[in-house]
């Protein structure tokens, strides 16, 4: 009886830990309303259309991203999100650590 109780308790702790980890992962990549975004092309012909679409939607190019053909831009999620998704481009939150910047850079 105590063995099955311990297994159930352990299962609950594991499930809670996974839920917390998943929550942090989602919040980490969820783009803010305004700020810096990592644009990652995943659709067909998305690489060629990424920069022209971003500029047309008033995004400011910051630089190349850490993934192949990805870019970091600054802009407004409401302007960028639907347009980017319709062209096969994923919009992620861009943090300084993920995008290769360092605190000491001038």
Describe the 3D structure:
The chain has 106 residues and is an alpha+beta fold. It folds into 2 domains: 30 residues; 60 residues, Alpha-Beta Plaits (2-Layer Sandwich), CATH 3.30.70. The chain is built from 3 helices and 4 strands, in the order H-E-H-E-E-H-E. The protein has a 4-stranded antiparallel sheet with strand order 2-3-1-4. The C terminus is likely disordered.
List the helices and strands and how they pair.
Blueprint: H1 2-29, E1 34-41, H2 46-56, E2 60-64, E3 71-76, H3 77-86, E4 89-93
Antiparallel strand pairs: 1-3, 1-4, 2-3
Transmembrane segments: 7-30, 50-67, 79-98
Keywords: Membrane, Transmembrane, Transmembrane helix
Structure, briefly:
The chain crosses the membrane at residues 7-30, 50-67, 79-98. It is built from 3 helices and 4 strands.
Strand content: 15-25%
- Tell me the major beta sheet: 4 strands, antiparallel
Name of the CATH class of the largest domain: Alpha Beta
How are helices and strands ordered from N to C? HEHEEHE
Shape label: elongated
Transmembrane segments: 7-30, 50-67, 79-98
Keywords: Membrane, Transmembrane, Transmembrane helix
Descriptors:
transmembrane; disordered C terminus; transmembrane helix; 23% strand; Alpha-Beta Plaits; 4 strands; elongated; alpha+beta
């Amino acid at each position: 009886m105590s063995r099955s109780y311990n297994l159930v308790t352990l299962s609950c702790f594991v499930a809670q830990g996974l839920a917390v980890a998943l929550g942090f992962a989602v919040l980490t990549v969820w783009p803010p309303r305004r700020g810096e975004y990592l644009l990652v092309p995943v659709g067909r012909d998305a690489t060629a259309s990424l920069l022209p679409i971003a500029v047309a939607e008033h995004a400011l190019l910051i630089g190349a991203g850490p993934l192949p053909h990805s870019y970091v831009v600054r802009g407004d999620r409401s302007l960028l999100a639907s347009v980017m998704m319709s062209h096969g481009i994923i919009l992620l939150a861009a943090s300084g650590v993920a995008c290769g910047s360092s605190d000491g850079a001038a």
